[in-house]
Automatic annotation (TrEMBL):
Swiss-Prot/TrEMBL keywords: Cytoplasm, FAD, Flavoprotein, Methyltransferase, NAD, NADP, Transferase, tRNA processing
GO biological process: tRNA methylation; tRNA wobble uridine modification
SUPFAM superfamilies reported in the protein's UniProt record: FAD/NAD(P)-binding domain (SSF51905)
The protein, known as: Methylenetetrahydrofolate--tRNA-(uracil-5-)-methyltransferase TrmFO
Xref: HAMAP family: TrmFO
Originating organism: Pyramidobacter porci
Length: 445
């Protein structure tokens, strides 16, 4: 059998290769390091962690924990490496990064079905292939992807505003109204500020600690139209009031008066449970984001499911470009994997490596593509990659807001989350039982 090409040996590429070779499918991986380096990688190892050594929460009462469980059920190489080389980090799964990536590299290299060539991929291969070249895909390959998807559908930067749970917004302070619309009601939820509240918020915002931009992220032209909120603020006390916090046309229906400034939040998922802070793309440190944005009236107890980020990140507009199985629309044997599919995070990227591999496996065996249950963590991530509600797609991580709502209404948050996760667990088990061929051990019939 002709080997499947895997372009990129990061987390997703390594996971994808593993999932294929353990199913008897030969893989030819092309990894450009160390011949060509990415701006963030430091070693020539497969599965290198570019930044933090934490793979996030491993708690069974979290979305990230459920995602890890599902990957373990798939015999994930990345999870094996993490479990074998974990270091103490409370409820998070942190690893000894050097041993972690060595474990992944060794496991792949010793598999007779695996071949590694250290070379940059500059063309999209014409045979069954998984592109897993990551958020820092080399410019030559990125330009080929841009040609494939079109200029408007491949993003080079993530400039994302924080996302919060709507139910954590204090609606006795905030109100629904669309700009210039009559009366109450509308798509936007507005958080009004008086002059004193604005002043307090403004001072906290400009003094808050920022994440330094890497050299490769510093090009201002990429930030056109999506300037970090703290940078807009630092241009003058009133720039926000004439920009994203403009109160015109947003009179508070309870007082009939125009607030001094208004922060608007807008629906971010199809279910309407998550909202993003409009115009609040930010480069503040995550802890600082929570501290400062909770000064906004109505958001004092906001639950953040995703923090704002601004960094180099090549990813596709998945809902408009991919077919739900990680293939560019209209293509049957080309799959994307990892962060570039529109997920964010080490484990999420890994999961999209596994999904792509199982997609290739189905394709090569003439089987229909798997329908991952939307209630499972992997299925919920895939569902988000199909959700075209938001005109400007932003990458997503595993959080409680990505799951479909329960049929029943449960007020208690913890209880509701438990129910959502146990439903996910059950649906994943059923999915596994119904697709035994994909979950069998190597050598099993
Ligand atoms: C600077 C930065 C910091 C991040 N920090 C974190 C963090 O702390 N925690 C977290 O959960 N997530 C983080 N992420 C997000 C994401 O989880 C990681 O980027 C993750 O490594 C993505 O996995 P991947 O497999 O998609 O890409 P990668 O792990 O980056 O793997 C891609 C691989 O493809 C190779 N490659 C690129 N182009 C080519 C080519 N043309 N030909 C051949 N090989 C190629 C690269 O060398 C690399 O080995 C960060 C992202 C960035 C950019």
């Amino acid at each position: 059998m002709q080997p499947v090409v895997v372009a990129g040996g990061g987390l997703a590429g390594s996971e994808a290769a593993w999932q294929l070779v353990r199913r008897g499918i030969p893989v030819h991986m092309f990894e450009m390091r160390p011949v060509v380096s990415s701006p963030a990688h430091r070693t020539d190892k497969l599965g290198e962690l570019v930044c933090s050594n934490s793979l996030g929460s491993d708690r069974d009462d979290s979305a990230a924990g459920l995602l890890k469980e599902e990957l373990r059920a798939l015999d994930s190489l990345v999870m094996k490496a993490a479990d074998a080389h974990s270091v103490p980090a409370g409820k998070a799964l942190a690893v000894d990064r050097e041993r972690f990536s060595r474990f992944i590299t060794d496991a792949l290299l010793k598999n007779p079905l695996f071949t590694l060539t250290r070379r940059e991929v500059t063309e999209i291969p014409a045979r069954p292939c998984i592109i897993a070249s990551g958020p820092l895909t080399s410019p030559a390959l990125a330009s080929k992807l841009q040609t494939l998807f079109g200029q408007d559908y491949l993003y080079f930067y993530d400039a994302v505003a924080p996302v919060i749970e709507l139910e954590s917004v204090d609606m006795s302070v905030a109100y629904r109204r669309d700009r210039y619309a009559d009366g109450e009601g509308g798509d936007y939820v507005n958080c009004p500020m008086d002059e004193q509240q604005y002043q307090t918020f403004y001072e906290a915002l400009i003094a808050a600690e920022r994440i330094p931009l890497h050299d490769f992220e510093g090009k201002a032209e990429y930030f056109e139209g999506c300037m970090p909120v703290e940078v807009i603020a630092s241009r003058g006390r009133d720039t926000l009031r004439f920009g994203p916090l403009r109160p015109v046309g947003l009179n508070d229906p309870r007082t009939g008066k125009r607030p001094y400034a208004v922060v608007q939040i807008r629906q971010d998922n199809a279910e309407g449970t998550l909202y993003n802070l409009v115009g609040f793309q930010t480069n503040l440190r995550w802890g600082e984001q929570q501290r400062v944005f909770r000064l906004i009236p109505g958001l004092e107890h906001a639950e953040f499911v995703r923090m704002g980020v601004m960094h180099r990140n090549i990813y596709v507009d998945a809902p408009r470009c991919l077919d739900g199985c990680l293939r560019p629309r209209g293509m049957d044997s080309l799959f994307l994997a990892g962060q570039m599919t529109g997920v964010e995070g080490y484990v999420e990227s890994t999961a999209m490596g596994a999904v792509a591999a199982l997609g290739v496996f189905s394709f090569l065996n003439g089987l229909p593509q798997l329908q991952w249950p939307a209630e499972s963590a992997i299925g919920a991530l895939l569902f988000r990659l199909k959700d075209a509600t938001n005109p400007r797609f932003a990458p997503t991580n595993a959080n409680m807001g990505i799951f479909p709502p329960l049929d029943e209404k449960i007020k208690n948050r913890r209880e509701r989350h438990e129910k959502i996760l146990s439903r996910g667990r059950l649906r994943f088990l059923q999915f596994k039982a119904n697709n035994a061929l994909f979950f069998s051990e190597p050598g099993e019939k």
